[in-house]
Each structure stands twice: as structure tokens, then as C-alpha cells.
């Protein structure tokens, strides 16, 4: 009997230790949330003892990798979610709104900030510009896809084509702006505020630009599901909300 009791205690001890052990949690997310996630991972690690490892890409590219079943514990994807959920590679019940991010207008540091308060004001600004830069929609950049839709809504897609310089990501667009190769840059606000030599003018009006919502999931194939749940909880916590605001995003959906 004593031997059985000791064996039971040993099993309970091992199980408890396994549940409480530190784990490495992998995350994949679009570049629009990169600055916020990179700021939060060290705090998550200190709070939980787990390690966070993040991979970033374009909005479309990230979603495609999740749909194809690449092995990340926590996928963060943009709406719509139907194909992501239908893929079976995420736990549908774990869907957690994290933040939304708007496409914004940027100018070089110190340049006058134009009026972008209305759709007509934005249209005048774009038509009067010498050149503009924004992320390449063809590569899956969500900000680029969104801004192409804005041009369509304004009815100026064709007339703007000679003025457009597509860039590799938001950082690339801001680099072109900072170098003076264009006079207006556009990408997610969260990608503008991290770059030197440029300033945010503000978000595009909602009537011509819908903010992009980002949602976190636990992967259906996670090898560390409890740690993955902990990371999703942290990314949707009040502490995270403060970071999102600091990084030019809005918490929740």
C-alpha cells in the first residue's frame, strides 16, 4: 500500500510539473501588428515563464500560410475568417479579437500636414501629388489591398497609376517617402509611427477606408495548447490594449 501511495504521489508530481513547465510558443501575424507584438512578447515571457517566437508577413501571405496548415501555435489573421476556419487548422472557439488598424497618410518629417478629413479632401490631395507610395497589394500586403479599394471608391484608379510607386511592405513605402522619392506615403498607421523621417497625418476617412481587424486563434495542431491559450489571452488583455493604442491601433474589433 505504501508503495502504491508513493507511486501515485510521483505521478501527480510529474503531471503538475509538466502542466507548469515553460514552453516555446510560436506565432505568425501580419506586419501591421508587428511593433505591438514585439513590444509585448518580453512582458508575456516575464508574466508566464513561456518563450514567444514570432514570425511576420503580409496580411494575405500570413492567412495563406495558416490555411495551408503551417505549424504555428498562435495564428493572427485579418478578416474575413471563413477560409481560415474552414481549413480546420485553427480552433474556431478560440477566435479572439485583438485590434484594428487603419490605413493612414504620412508626410516627411516637418512637411505641412494636408487636410484629409473628408473623401473629397483626400481625392484632391492624391490628384495634386507628384508621386505616392504604398505597399504592394500583389504581394498580399493588406494595406496595399485596402488602399487599392480606396482608389476605386474615389474613382481615380486609372489617373493615379503614373504617380504610384508600389513598395515592399509599409517600411518600404515609408523609406521612399523619407528619401523624398514621393511626397505622400500610405500604409497602416502602426507601420508609419515606427519609421524615421516620416510623420502621421491621420487615418483615411472610414467612408473610403475600412480599418483592418486582426483576430487571434489557437492552432488546432499546437503542441503547446495551454501556452498558446495563455498568449492569446495576453494579446487581448488590458495591458495589450494599452500597447495597441500606443502603436496606433484600436483594441478589439
List keywords for this structure.
single chain, 253 residues, D-Maltodextrin-Binding Protein, domain 2, 2 domains, six-stranded mixed beta sheet, 11 helices, 23% strand, disordered N terminus
Please tell me about this protein's structure:
There is one protein chain. The chain has 253 residues and is an alpha/beta fold. The chain has two domains: 2-100 and 212-251, Periplasmic binding protein-like II (D-Maltodextrin-Binding Protein, domain 2, 3-Layer(aba) Sandwich), CATH 3.40.190.10; 103-203, 3-Layer(aba) Sandwich (D-Maltodextrin-Binding Protein, domain 2), CATH 3.40.190.10. Helix content is 43%, strand content 23%. The protein has eleven helices and eleven strands. It has a six-stranded mixed β-sheet with strand order 2-1-3-10-4-11. The longest helix is centred in the first third of the chain and has 19 residues, at 2-20. The protein is elongated. The termini are far apart. Residues 1-19 have low confidence and may be disordered.
